[in-house]
Amino acid sequence: MSRSAIAGGVIWIGLIAATPLHWARLNTIESLFLLGPLVVVPLGLGLYFRFTGKMQLGIPVRLARKLQLPAALCIIASFWFPQGIVATILVLPWLIFGSLIGLQGLLTLIQRKFAGLRTGCLVVSFLYLPIGCAWLVASRLGLNPMGFQEPIVLLTAVHFHFAGFAAPVLALATGLADEKRNPILQKMFSTIATGVMAGPGLLAIGFVIGPHLKLIAAVLVACSEIGLAFCFLAEVRKVRPWLAQMFITISAVSVLFAMVLAGIWAIGEFPLQPFVHLDEMAKLHGTANALGFVTCGLVGWTLADRHMARLKGDPQ
Questions:
Q1: Which of 75-89, 206-220, 228-242, 258-272 is predicted most confidently?
Q2: Contact 164/136 with Cβ under 8 angstroms?
Q3: E strand segments, the chain
Q4: CA distance readout (Å), 279 to 81, 124, 208, 286, 291
Q5: Does 126 reside within a domain?
Q6: Considering the domain boundaries, does residue 316 fall inside one?
Q7: Residue 306 placed within a domain
Q8: Is the pTM of this model over 0.70?
Q9: Residue 123: pLDDT above 60?
Q10: For 77-101, how does the pLDDT look when each residue is reduced to its tens digit (9 = 90+)?
Q11: Cα-based distances in Å from 174 to 188, 204, 218, 242, 313
């Protein structure tokens, strides 16, 4: 596990512990968002490096990795200021970081022509991240893009960091865990992975176009990530060490809970009679998805990959 992710995790836990003492002024959505830059993104990049090979990733993402932790710390500082110029200036390094990641995704798309699961997940994930960074800038500046107001603006940044960037990483890790599965199961997994990649973008578009597409996209995201959870459970018995098994199992159970809530919320939104309110969604769905599904999943697959590398004598 990268030092940056470990350091970010320690900092994040410190922020959460400081919040009840009023040393840190963070609400639930802000706290969950910070888990992305501090922990989720460095874990995801670390897995991509291991799966893709350091020599196959270009200069933009190498520069971005060096910028990641300082830029994440600047985001923390921005939440100590009200929305405005100062808060915005402090998140600009993260926008630069995300832009470098997006540039790497675009270069990969051009060079490899979107061939295969490995390249597809990398490209989609890397292109989603700068969108999330741009929405963070809009949130800290106090903008209302397309008429959306807080907390929707910051939640959109959360969406593209977790469902957009991280979920395809988890799909890639699951796909590479057993590349010799029978053709029927492989086709089913490819369908699930396609849904994981397409769902976040379609859901964001649905918020702009209207409730019908939003409902369809939300169901697609929920079904795809529930399918991914079952893939986790199908592969977890082959995974070592036991700690990796534990984290991956927690991830699978968490996403089942989180996506059921998301489905209930989406159905309630269609007749504009929400069964679960936004603040409840942030606390229940947000925590289960960000901390349980994404973070535990990335930790579990990182541990599993490191174990396999040691068995193969890989010096990574």
A1: 75-89
A2: no
A3: none
A4: 23, 29, 21, 10, 17
A5: yes
A6: no
A7: yes
A8: yes
A9: yes
A10: 999 999 999 999 999 999 999 999 9
A11: 13, 25, 22, 17, 22
Q: Are 172 and 194 in contact (CB under 8 A)?
A: no
Residue type, 154: L
Length of the chain: 316
For residue 144, the SS3 value is: coil
Radius of gyration of the chain (CA): 19
- CA quadruple 134, 136, 138, 143: dihedral positive or negative? positive
- Expressed as residue numbers, the domain containing 143 is 3-311
Q: Tokens at residue 98, please?
A: 């995300």
| Averaged pLDDT for residues 237-246 | 91
CA neighbor of 169 nearest in space, from 251, 100, 241, 95? 251
User: Tokens representing 295?
Assistant: 């973070």
pLDDT reported for residue 146: 86
* Range 123-151 average pLDDT: 93
Average pLDDT along the chain: 86
From the list 193, 287, 202, the residue with the least C-alpha distance to 231 is 193
How many structural domains compose the chain? 1
Beta-carbon-side half-sphere exposure of residue 121 (alpha carbons within 13 Å): 25
